[in-house]
Amino acid sequence: MVRKVAFITGVTGQDGALLAELLLGKGYEVHGTKRRSSSFTGRVDHLYVDPHVEDARFFIHYADVTDSTNLIRLIQEVQPTEIYNLAAQSHVQVSFETPEYTANADGIGTLRLLEAIRILKLEDTARFYQASTSELYGKVQEIPQKETTPFYPRSPYAAAKLYSFWITVNYREAYGMHASNGILFNHEGPTRGETFVTRKITRAVAAITLGKQKRLYLGNLDAKRDWGNARDYVEGMWRILQQETPDDYVLATGEMHSVREFIELAFQHVDRAITWRGEGVDEQGLDAKTGEVLVEVDPRYFRPTEVELLLGDPSKAREKLGWTHKTPFRELVREMVASDLAVVGQEKWRNDA
Ligand code: NDP
Ligand code: GDR
User: Fold this and answer.
1) Would you kindly state where each structural domain of the chain is located, as residue ranges?
2) Is the Cβ atom of 312 under 6 angstroms away from ligand 1?
3) 177, CA 20 to 30 Å: which among 155, 194, 263, 305?
């Protein structure tokens, strides 16, 4: 039988947990990394089984992508056939506050993993996936954005990921590694981190509906993104590594919406229509019936350099990988609002009790 052993850095993140679940379903043995400091492991708790159980196939190891020796030791121990590098300081705005750390984890972290493969002479047995991003496109050069569109990073996060993109290409060309980049556009879901804009909105809509919050403060409402469902995207990551030849692929929906549209749709799911008043920093979103201010712009959420719009062309992934996104935008928003109504409802119930 062919050995199928996956090593996932950042398994406690949104994508890591969904990917682990997908691969376990496909019969893989899955090894994921978490940090000693990870305070939140809720996304993988349901996958965990006591490693003493005979048929356990999911294992968690402590690791940090800023620590080469622990990566080398772990990869030597696990001897993975597929390595998915998802670990990153993944928040664009936070990268302006912690640029050096972000470069270390999101840039050099990738180099450390590629070097581990080389040092351990696993070039012929281990395939490597790098979590590249639509943020690489940054300042608009072409719409829609595809594999051949020039990059123009607009944040320390994107600049670090640019290094990772190219070092992955370089190790593929220099050492014949099966190393690929997935250039993924924004993908979301009920387990998305709470400070990313979609989850911030759906949590707030739930909290406002349940009387736990009065107002939602946001930054740039004009930003436009190509938002897909994370569940669909982890399937694409896996498909990328099943190809005979390593390559780079855009995964996107090919549809774009503004932050403002996301807000309107999220409130629609709780039967509230929003009207807009003012402009720029003075813009407010009002309940169309009562006039109550539900959304307000707070400049603290503006970024020093913004990525105004991202729209992906996933044709190559469709043709070569047979991959397409499956979740309509409206359905994604509905699923996130419904999930947050349940989550916030439970929190309220516990607090009240
Ligand atoms: P999350 O922020 O949800 O998860 C990131 C994971 O990386 C967490 O498990 C985190 O652990 C871990 N991590 C952070 N720093 C380190 C470190 N120094 N060493 C080891 N682990 C670390 O991100 P997503 O799941 O959304 O994204 C996964 C990857 O895909 C990231 O690399 C992201 O940049 C990239 N990406 C994401 C897109 C998206 O729309 N979601 C789109 C394109 C790319 P901890 O809990 O300890 O912080
Ligand atoms: P992004 O996602 O920067 O695209 O990076 P995020 O959800 O943080 O921002 C999307 C857009 O919304 C605007 N925005 C706000 N953003 C946040 N977080 N909070 C706010 O209050 C707010 N108000 C408006 C932003 O300015 C931006 O234009 C995500 C991450 O997952 C990256 O790791 C990944 O690489 C890219 O997606 C693709």
Assistant:
1) 5-188+227-255, 197-224+258-308+329-352
2) no
3) 155
